Amino acid sequence: MYSDSYTTIKSSSKGIYKEKGSRFIAFAFPVSDHEEIKSIIDKIRKEDHGARHHCYAYMIGHERMIWRVNDDGEPPGTAGRPILGQINSFGLTNIIIIVSRYFGGTLLGVSGLINAYRSAAASAIKNSVIIEYTLQEYYEITYPHVSMNDVMKILKEEDIGQSEQSFDLECSIKVNFRTSAREKILNRLSRIEGLKYRYLDTQ
Question: How many percent of the chain have pLDDT more than 90?
């Protein structure tokens, strides 16, 4: 069943895990595209240049289909995957978690690394505020002034968001509503004589 909602974090957060002298500092950020992700990775690498590794995992898109992991020199599967595992455990998307490791001189082994990166990522998530977003579709509708009351009645009854209104002989208004309500709302609006609508965006 299609869902028009997704869960992410409200703002950036931080977590830490220590094991045998090594410090694993986790940074979690809400993100929406690859450009933003690259900028954040570059920023962390620059600010925490003393760390030996900057491992990360991210997931974007409300369908949770776009993701990537990076072990940044750690043994394969010991860092990025455990971080992604925590993102999945909390059902999150539009998030990146970067874990910077400051080596303490003692090797942790494969299982120790997996536990450390997993625990650091979990710590950052638990220190964040988790929120649910609903996907909104945006349209511009135009209609004759005589249809004003019919349009406003629907907008009020369906609790439709409104912005950038222009009232003249030909009126226009930008509206937004949940993706799951699209069919019902557009069907109602299309029954109004002279009304036209144009899709703008989904976010």
Answer: 89
Helix then strand then coil, in percent of the chain rounded to 5, is 35, 40, 30
Q: Report how far residue 53's alpha carbon sits from residue 23's, in angstroms, rounded to the nearest whole number.
A: 11
How would you label 105-143 residue by residue, b for 16+ Cβ within 10 Å and e otherwise? eeebeeeebbbbbbbbbbbbbeebeeeebeebbbbebeb
CB neighbours of 10 closer than 8 A, spacing ≥ 6?
A: 30, 128, 129, 130, 131
Domain ranges (residues) in the chain: 5-133, 135-202
Rounded CA gap, 24 and 117, in Å?
A: 7
Give SS3 for 54.
strand
Each residue of 97-135: pLDDT tens digit? 999 999 988 889 999 999 999 999 999 999 999 999 999
* Predicted model pTM: 0.82
Dist. CA 9–CA 30, nearest whole Å: 6
Domain 5-133 has CATH 3.30.230.30: yes
Q: Residue 166: pLDDT band by 50, 70, 90 thresholds?
A: confident
Question: Per the CATH hierarchy, to which homologous superfamily does domain 135-202 belong?
Answer: ACT domain (3.30.70.260)
